[in-house]
Write a structure and sequence with these properties.
- The protein is an alpha/beta fold and about 160 residues long.
- The protein has a single domain, classed as Rossmann fold (3-Layer(aba) Sandwich).
- About 45% of the residues lie in helices and about 15% in strands.
- It contains eight helices and five strands, in the order βαβαβαβαβαααα.
- The chain has a five-stranded parallel β-sheet with strand order 2-1-3-4-5, sandwiched between helices.
- The longest helix is centred in the C-terminal third of the chain and has 13 residues.
- The radius of gyration is 15 Å and the shape is globular.
């Protein structure tokens, strides 16, 4: 018997200024009730007038960090998804600002797995970043091998694993 997805029936807001990204996410999360927003104002209104389990927020083009703050105030799980702001610096900033996770857009195909990780962590009283290094360390090694913030392993080693 197939295990039921933790995402089944969850209401998710996806925010991105690129229509193809919104459509891709909607397709990948077909087990969820998905609401799309392509601007900061649309997303802000949705966050303040509807209830969501998770908000997937682009950083650039839609004021993602401002939306992160609103999502947290509304007790909605915020997940950052980005291409243009992909860097160790933005990863650290997202973590410190309270994002449940930070996902590179070129890893979007596995978004359901990452969101399942977050929901599993919450049900098990773990940090939502518990599998981040396992999921993304080799990707970051290739992409940011010369970036001093990635080479300084102290922060990365401090990410919770339990």
């Amino acid at each position: 018997m197939e295990k039921k997805s933790l995402l089944e029936g969850k209401k998710i807001l996806i925010v991105d200024d690129e229509p193809d990204v919104l459509d891709t996410l909607e397709d990948l999360l077909d087990m969820c009730d998905v609401v799309k927003a392509s601007t900061f104002d649309e997303a802000k209104t949705a966050l303040e007038t509807q209830s969501f389990d998770i908000a997937i927020l682009d950083i650039m083009g839609v004021e993602g960090y401002s939306l992160l703050d609103i999502a947290k105030q509304q007790k909605i799980i915020p997940v950052m998804l980005t291409a243009h702001a992909l860097s160790p610096d933005h990863t650290i900033k997202s973590y410190k600002r309270g994002a449940a996770l930070y996902v590179p857009k070129d890893k979007i195909a596995n978004i359901a797995d990452y969101l399942e990780d977050v929901l599993e962590a919450i049900t098990r009283n773990k940090s939502t970043w518990w599998r981040w290094l396992e999921r993304f360390a080799s990707y970051y090694d290739q992409k940011f091998e010369k970036d001093p913030q990635w080479k300084d392993k102290e922060f990365w080693k401090s990410l919770p694993y339990a």
